[in-house]
Structures are given as structure tokens and as C-alpha cells.
Specification:
The structure holds two protein chains of two kinds. Chain A is 44% helix and 19% strand. Chain A is built from eleven helices and ten strands. Chain A starts with 6 loop residues before the first strand and ends in a 20-residue tail after the last helix. Chain B folds into two domains: 109 residues, ATPase, nucleotide binding domain (Nucleotidyltransferase, domain 5, 2-Layer Sandwich), CATH 3.30.420; 85 residues, ATPase, nucleotide binding domain (Nucleotidyltransferase, domain 5), CATH 3.30.420. In chain B, 40% of the residues lie in helices and 25% in strands. In chain B, β6 and β7 form a beta hairpin. Chain B is globular and about 50 Å long. Classes of the chains: A alpha/beta, B alpha/beta.
């Protein structure tokens, strides 16, 4: 154990991935173990909270043990335990929180509760050693759509968020409606390659009193209405065209709001994060828009876009260095707001 | 032998340390605050008072279900985290067994009743030969009528305990045909002392598992799984309701294989 190495064991169980990781000095990922439940939830067309919680408790010790082994370390060499305590599914969060607290207590290691979205943002630090705050970040996942100004490590200002569905949620719902199934994001992206993104013009919602806010339920309804219309008129639905046009509409809104914020706040660095950030079409559109403005564009690899514990370890490291410590009474907070404790 | 006992299966949160024939410390709270916030601070408090070195415990006994799904997982995840960190095994003590063990030595039959909602109770039936517990009916999720009919057939006096009593007391008063009573306040709810003491017997008998293996026994599928199963068996939809005992135990077996 090197003296200037701060080693974090991180645990994440906020939704349907049971994950643990070992991260050194907030940037170096020594292990990143993810046990995904996607196959199980596919049967139900989405994540079932009770099933997710049951799976977490079955897998969590194996995942942690594997993360320690792959990092060639033991609990004794860990400096602190980081754990996601919100937002997310409460039953799922509680498994990770109770486990982390028990390990922290038994091993007398400091405990750091981490905000899940903060984790997603911090995923960008892993592969981009030059990235430092301040920068603009768009977090897009199945549960979240946040446009965030990252002021400093652990300091955030939320500029906008979704008023209804998260972007990833809209992908899931539309995928289900056009018969692609769950999870919607990767499936829509795949068929979109075969489709025409200008086949239909679906609406791009603008919100008057919230220039950086998002709304995707109108878009989702427009797709559903289109599908109903086709059915009533007996017109065959071209799945790939619908998927591509829908994806284009989501991308346009996300890029539009992000670029407006960059102009307004004069940021020279922009990052995307969250599960939807692994969508190639969105990533390329963002890259292109950033390049045009001379803004440096960052994105995590897909493995750090999806829910994972490495990103929680990164966030926990910076919180730990800021002096953040949590007690044995740390609770899961399902609707935790970014920047609040 | 030193056993740490934990129970967060119901409204009560409880921790205890039992060493051989002695209860060294127990902290039991039957109050609204969430177990997630209270369980470990309670353990910390007891451990401090008895100067417990956690490394010296032999195993962790947990009320492993049935009970509140969330409560069970808070207890199980706590036990699993402790087990992982301390490299100690877990004794999965059935919640209803541990409840019954509160009344060890009682002359009557012992019938714990937990409120399982959906018109059911998590229950079982036990008889003590001094402190040796005999299980007449293993813990299960059934209608109150089912277990009361079973008790009436035995023709023997019975003592009830558990958080299901307020829910089922009217039914008991009308339908129990044998002499019956309710256990008093200090022994009528979950207590980690009983979990640890019974856990010690199970441990000695080789009934334990690794912390990694441990998972709660819910005795019930999740709602989504239940509804999916019902859809798949639309030709025989009401079997489970007509015969709760068989229906439930079938479901449980399939559930634990998932």
C-alpha cells in the first residue's frame, strides 16, 4: 500500500445493477464488477423494484468480494467505503446502504454516501485525466435527464431537468410500442441505422418558463398517436423509420438545450453521462455541435455510462477529500436532490 | 460460543449478543423509526456497553424471514456486510421459530401470528419439551382459519404471540375451541435474544451458511412474479386461494429457485 494512495471501495445498487469497484485517488479504476439483472426484468418489460431488491441481496457479497480480488486488495487496505444512497429505488438502495454501513462498522472504515447522479457525472473523470471542473454536463439515463453546471468537485448547479419522462424512459416506452422490447435504448439505436430520421417530424418540446428543462411525454404520445393512426388507416409501420425519427427528435432536444446552456454560461468543456450517453447517435451529434463551437467534448466509455460502482468510487473520493463522512444512521433517500445531503 | 443476533423482520428492531448460557446485551425497540437508521447504531451502543470485540463472535444469527420484505433485507444486508467484513458465517433463523422460542419451556402449544397482510398470517405451531422445541407445523403463510382449525384439531391449550394478535384477536375469540392465552408484553414480539439463543442451537447442529450464500426467506413471490404466474395459469387461477397451505408452499418452492 503506497502512502499517497487513497483507495475507495464503492458499492452501487440503486436500480437493477449490483456493482462494486475499487478506485484509487479518484481516477484509477482497479476493478469494476457489475452484476446485471436485465435478463430477469426483460420478462416484465421493465425493472420490477421488488425483484431488483431480491437480486441485489443475493449477489452483493459475491460482487464485493470479486471487486476486492480483481483489485488485488483486501478490506484492510481500503481507506473508505463509498455507497450510493439516492436517488433510486428505495428497496434496492437499502441493500447497498445496509451492506456498506455494516462493512464500514466492522472494519472501522469511514463511510461516504454518494449521490447517484454525481456518480454519473464523475464517470467522466475516469478516462479523461485532463477533465476538471468547471464544465457543463448532461446526465441522461432511464431515470434522469439533468443539465448540470459542475462548479467544482462536489458542487453542482442544476440548470434544467425533465418535467415528465426521463429520456431513457421515453426510449423504453417507444421501444415497447413498436415491438422492440426492453431495454429500449440499445434496441432503438440498432434499428435506427436502417431507418430514415426524417421520415416523420415528431415534436421537439420547448418549455417557456424553463429554457433548459426537458419534456418527453409529448414526444412519446406523438409516436403512439402516429402508430394508432397507421393501424386505423391500415398503413404498415416502418419500425426503423419510427425509431430513427424518434431518436432524432430526442437528440435534437438534448443537443439544443445543451448548446443553449453552453452559449449562455460560456463553458468551454462539455460532458455527457448516464446510460443514454452510450447512444452513438446522441454522442456524435453532441461531438459535432461542440466541435462547431470550439468546446471540448467528453463522454465515458459505455461500461462507465451504465450504472456502475467505479463512478461512485470516483465521486466518493472527492467527497472524502472534501471531508464528507456519513454515520451508521445513513439512510437510503429515493428522491435525493443533487447537491443536497 | 458467542452469537450476534439481529431481527428487523417486523415493527421491532432488535440486536443481542448471547454467549453460551448468558445474554450479554440486548437492545429492542418497538417504535416507528426506520430500521435502516436504527439497527447499526443499536448494535454499536450494545457493543460499547459490553466492550464487545466483534472479531470474537462465532456467527451472526438473523431472523431470516418471513416478515416485511424491506425489513428482512435491511437485516440480511447488515448481517451479510458484517459476515463479509468479519469472515463469519450466518445462521438463518426462521422468524416464526425465533418468535416461538421467546416462550421456550411453556406448557402450552406456542403459535406465533405475524400480520402477513392479504388476509394471511405468517405462522407455525410449536411444542416445548423443557427447552427443546418441537415443530408441529413449519412456518408458513396461511389464512388465520387454517391455523386455528389445525390448533382446534390438536385439542391442546395454546398461547399466541406476535404482531398479528391485534389483527386476528376477534377471530381467535370466536373460533378457538381450546384453552388459549396471549403472551405478555415482554415476550410477545421479535427479540434478538431469542434469535441468538435459538441460532446457537442451530449453529451447533451445523445449520448455518456463508455470508455470501445467505438470503432472506420471504415465503412469498413478489407481486409481479405472482401476477405473471397467475396469467400463465389462467386455466386454474384460484387454486392458491382455495387451498392456501398447498398453494403457498408450491409458490415458495418455485420462488426460491429463481
Amino acid at each position: 500500500m503506497s502512502e499517497n494512495e487513497i483507495k475507495i471501495l464503492a458499492i452501487e445498487s440503486s436500480c437493477d445493477e449490483t456493482a462494486a469497484a475499487v478506485v484509487v485517488n479518484g481516477r484509477e479504476v482497479r476493478s469494476n464488477v457489475i452484476s446485471s439483472q436485465i435478463a430477469l426484468h426483460t420478462l416484465y418489460g421493465g425493472v420490477v423494484p421488488e425483484i431488483a431488491s431480491r437480486k441485489h441481496i443475493e449477489k452483493i457479497n459475491q460482487v464485493i468480494t470479486q471487486a476486492l480480488a480483481e483489485a488485488n486488495t483486501t478490506l484492510d487496505d481500503i481507506d473508505a467505503i463509498g455507497v450510493t444512497y439516492g436517488p433510486g429505488l428505495v428497496g434496492a438502495l437499502l441493500v447497498g446502504v445496509a451492506e456498506a454501513k455494516a462493512i464500514s462498522y466492522a472494519k472501522k472504515k469511514p463511510l461516504v454516501g454518494v449521490h447517484h447522479i454525481e456518480g454519473h457525472i464523475c464517470a467522466n473523470y475516469i478516462e479523461n485525466p485532463d477533465l476538471k471542473p468547471p464544465f457543463m454536463c448532461l446526465v441522461v439515463s432511464g431515470g434522469h435527464t439533468h443539465l448540470v453546471k459542475v462548479l467544482d468537485y462536489g458542487k453542482y448547479e442544476i440548470l434544467g431537468k425533465t418535467r415528465d419522462d426521463a429520456a431513457g424512459e421515453a426510449f423504453d416506452k417507444v421501444a415497447r410500442a413498436i415491438g422492440l422490447g426492453y431495454p429500449g435504448g440499445p434496441k432503438i439505436e440498432k434499428v435506427s441505422h436502417e431507418g430514415n430520421p426524417h421520415a416523420m417530424e415528431f415534436p421537439r418540446a420547448k418549455i417557456e418558463d424553463g429554457p433548459y428543462d426537458f419534456s418527453f411525454s409529448g414526444l412519446k404520445s406523438a409516436v403512439l398517436n402516429y402508430l394508432n393512426g397507421c393501424q386505423m388507416k391500415g398503413i404498415p409501420v416502418v419500425q426503423a423509420d419510427v425509431a430513427a425519427s424518434f431518436q432524432k427528435a430526442v437528440t435534437d432536444v438534448l443537443v439544443g438545450n445543451a448548446m443553449k446552456a453552453i452559449d449562455e454560461f460560456g463553458m468551454d468543456k462539455f460532458a455527457i453521462a448516464g446510460g443514454v450517453a452510450s447512444n452513438g447517435t446522441l454522442r456524435e451529434a453532441m461531438r459535432e455541435a461542440c466541435t462547431k463551437k470550439g468546446v471540448q467534448f467528453y463522454h465515458p466509455s459505455p461500461i462507465f455510462c451504465t450504472d456502475n460502482a467505479a463512478m461512485i468510487g470516483v465521486a466518493a473520493y472527492y467527497d472524502y477529500m472534501n471531508g464528507q463522512r456519513d454515520g451508521l444512521d445513513l439512510n437510503a433517500v429515493p428522491n435525493l436532490k443533487l447537491g443536497e445531503r | 460460543m458467542k452469537i450476534l443476533g439481529l431481527d428487523s423482520s417486523g415493527l421491532v428492531a432488535s440486536v443481542a449478543i448471547v454467549e453460551n448460557e448468558n445474554l450479554l446485551g440486548e437492545y429492542t425497540v418497538n417504535y416507528k423509526k426506520t430500521h435502516s437508521q436504527t439497527l447499526l447504531p443499536m448494535l454499536d451502543e450494545v457493543a460499547r456497553m459490553i466492550e464487545l470485540d466483534l472479531e470474537t463472535i462465532d456467527a451472526i444469527a438473523i431472523a431470516g424471514g418471513p416478515g416485511s420484505f424491506t425489513g428482512l433485507r435491511i437485516g440480511s444486508a447488515t448481517a451479510k456486510g458484517l459476515g463479509l467484513a468479519l469472515n463469519k458465517p450466518i445462521i438463518n433463523v426462521p422468524t416464526v421459530d425465533a418468535l416461538a422460542y421467546n416462550l421456550a419451556g411453556h406448557q402450552s402449544l406456542v403459535c406465533p401470528l405475524m400480520d402477513a397482510r392479504r388476509n394471511q398470517t405468517y405462522t407455525g405451531l410449536y411444542r416445548f419439551h423443557t427447552n427443546e422445541m418441537e415443530t408441529l407445523r413449519e412456518q408458513c403463510a396461511v389464512g388465520i382459519d387454517e391455523i386455528v382449525a389445525y390448533i382446534n384439531e390438536t385439542g391442546q391449550p395454546v398461547v399466541f404471540l406476535g404482531d398479528g394478535i391485534p389483527v386476528f384477536s376477534a377471530y381467535i375469540q370466536e373460533n378457538v375451541k381450546v384453552p388459549w392465552s396471549f403472551a405478555p408484553a415482554h415476550m410477545n414480539k421479535q427479540r434478538a435474544g431469542a434469535v441468538a439463543a435459538l441460532g446457537m442451537k442451530y449453529f451447533a447442529a451445523g445449520r448455518y451458511e456463508s455470508a455470501a450464500e445467505h438470503r432472506p426467506e420471504y415465503l412469498r413471490l413478489s407481486q409481479a412474479e405472482r401476477e405473471r404466474k397467475e396469467q400463465q395459469h389462467t386455466s386454474e387461477p384460484e387454486n392458491a386461494k382455495e387451498n392456501p397451505l398447498t398453494g403457498t408452499s408450491e409458490t415458495v418452492n418455485e420462488g426460491s429457485r429463481l
